Amino acid sequence: MSDFRVLSPTMLASPQIGPADVVEAAGQGVSLIINNRPDGESPGEPQGPEIEAAARKAGLDYLAIPIGSAGFGEPQVEAMQQAIGNANGKVLAYCRSGTRSTLLWSLAQARAGEDIDAIAATARQAGYDVSPVRAAMDALSAQSKS
Questions:
Q1: What's the CATH architecture for 5-144?
Q2: Per the CB 3.0–4.6 Å rule, which of 5, 103, 116, 128 could disulfide with 123?
């Protein structure tokens, strides 16, 4: 059973998914799966190529934007913002617990000029805390307005 959490009408976050979750995502209108987990992080779980193959088989787009131990950087935030903006339907982003995916989504939303408090409230409602990246969200939001 999947654990897709709603961040917006077009954005879902999830803990690690498997091929059956990809089929369920397609049934829920997802058109793009974003993998925020580096391959090899947990060898016993499905790796990117397996999820990508399942996505392609289900007619979905797939993109890897891995977030490893080095954390978040501007290229990852920009890639996430572009992926979300270019998606033709719902987006499902996943990592080990869904937290990195939600944090990256939050940063991308802030970079796009979305309301910071609304982003935080939405993430909290989905069970995620964006306080670890709140200062970065504030900075990205300020940059988007200048």
A1: Alpha-Beta Complex (3.90)
A2: 128
